[in-house]
UniProtKB/TrEMBL annotation:
Gene3D superfamilies: RutC-like. This is RidA family protein. It comes from the Bacteria. InterPro entries: Endoribo_LPSP/chorism_mut-like (IPR013813), RutC-like_sf (IPR035959). It comes from Nonomuraea cypriaca. Residues 12-135 form the Endoribonuclease L-PSP/chorismate mutase-like domain. Coiled coil: none annotated.
Amino acid sequence: MSGEAATSSAEERFKELGLEFPPSPKRTGNFLSAVRVGDLLFLSGQGSHDRLGKIGVDFDVDEGYQAAREAGLRSLALAKEELGSLDRVKRIVKILGFVNCEAGFDRNPQVLNGASDLMVEIFGDAGRHVRSAIGAIALPHDFAVEIEMVLQLEPDRS
């Protein structure tokens, strides 16, 4: 997981990895999907729509890793929708991750590596971020994983 992505744009790297953006979810509450403050973009929580249930009960850690990766893709889809291009992202600042699990499950960091590894694959060293990995007894819609992100943006060129 080196900074090899620095040699190509985030958009190019996304395509090279064969990734596809999932459809944007429909918002069901009185909140925004994304908010810009200065050069930061705050993204609302995104869940693993394809994996519903508890890690350690319904899914193993490897499947949880994939669920976190999916939640990361959904977050990047929101960013692209807001910005027009992932190339506007200067760096990933923070990921706050929640893992749907039973009490006593302690492998939350390994699960959330799915989202963290994805960011480094796409953004190289600019994808490295601070992170919290929290176990939760329940998540909305029974998502296996939910993450929210903070991104730093490149300066506007307009």
